Structure prediction request, 379 residues.
Amino acid sequence: MIGWLRRVFRSNLNTSSTHTVSLRARYDAAATTPDNAQHWAQADSLSPTAALTPNVRRTLRNRARYEVANNSYANGIVATIANYTIGTGPVLQVRTANEDFNLRFERAWSEWCAMVDLPEILRIMRRCIVVDGEAFAILCDYPRQRTKVKLAIRLVEPEQISEGPASMLAQPVEGIVFDDYGVPAAYHVLRRHPGDISVTADIDYTYETIPADSVIHYFHRDRPGQWRGVPEITPALPLFSILRRFTLATAAAAETAANLAAVLQTDSAAYIPRDAERFARELVWQFVDLRPRSATVLPPGWRLSQMTAQHPTTTYGDFVYHLMSEIARCLNVPVVVALNDSSRANFSSGRLDLRNWYRSLEVERARIEASVLSRMAHR
Prediction:
């Protein structure tokens, strides 16, 4: 920096003496003020291992699973992501000089895919990335498999990659054994799911150690040194709860307006008797049946007012659209796909949104090819 300043301001600097120049810069986002202190209260400098503790990952998984199971928007988005990413499954093309060999190899691949139901396995793994944050597949030989290739695939949930409750505090990364170079060497897999309802009071936490070359760990790594995944839908979980509350409030406002058809009002004191308590007891809050398709005449000073659901019904559609846009953004899904509704988009904008999404699908398919399919092929 000193040399650069000397070249620029050569005439103003005394080159025979040593100058100390200090550069001071200010970032508004680094300043803590009374206005933003609460917003940044949860910001920390934890490592990926310290931030993604077993309890944190378990809480995120449980909430994501609950939301996807009970929210039609969330369920539909997850299903759409899995269907569009995997489709009907990978297709193998062998291009050697021997056409007969190519045909027999491709036929054997198709038979094996159908036997193990590879497309469904890949769709489940893609769903797990969105909801659970990671997917584990164990590669093993199954002698009873009715194909020449005996390779079988067994999916396990993230809870089973563990040594039990004692390892949650003792192990830096639960369920993974690392070698001297910091690379996974083996995985500890519980024989039973910790959430199984057992007839016995004690839960079986026995596990088997499986070499890393027989385990496929498919997840998105967002930080260096991260070895366990976070649900992709995590940033949208608070927004789904807001959407649900707003929907219930809108429905409640409409029901309240529908239950009360009309209200009789008067501003004239002439019709209020001296005995106000008797008036309130006998006249106020009385219900009058109105005949359909008929007219009525009210006494002087009285008027009939009909209830209307003015509260959020007029803005409900816009609110859902913009909130779903924010929800879909963290999943790289266009809002027209998330809503399954293109009524607000024209042809060109719809194609542009889908083009960006197709690019993200290509990236995800390349990740699946490198992390999952290549591991199966080299087994």
